[in-house]
Design a protein that fits this description.
It contains two helices and four strands; from the N terminus they run H-E-E-E-H-E. With about 80 residues, it is an alpha+beta fold. The chain starts with 8 loop residues before the first helix and ends with a strand.
Length: about 80
Amino acid sequence: MKKVPVPTEDAFKEALNNPGGWVYVIDEPYQGKEDVPSEHILGAWKVDNEGNLSELFEFNPNYKSTSKGFWRKVKRVFMRGEGK
């Protein structure tokens, strides 16, 4: 079973700024970049219309980590998105 990331304070803040959208967890080399290939998005939480994260995390079935030891090295960075 895959390990679900624990939402950080930044994830909750991003959700408040993105009601009705998604908060994504992206792979380390793509942090801060505008264009992130979909295979480097670990997954996302759906954000409700009030800006709250969903309890369920949706994994990207096409995710391919760019580094070994992803869970040890990655800084979870969140980006806004409308839909998936």
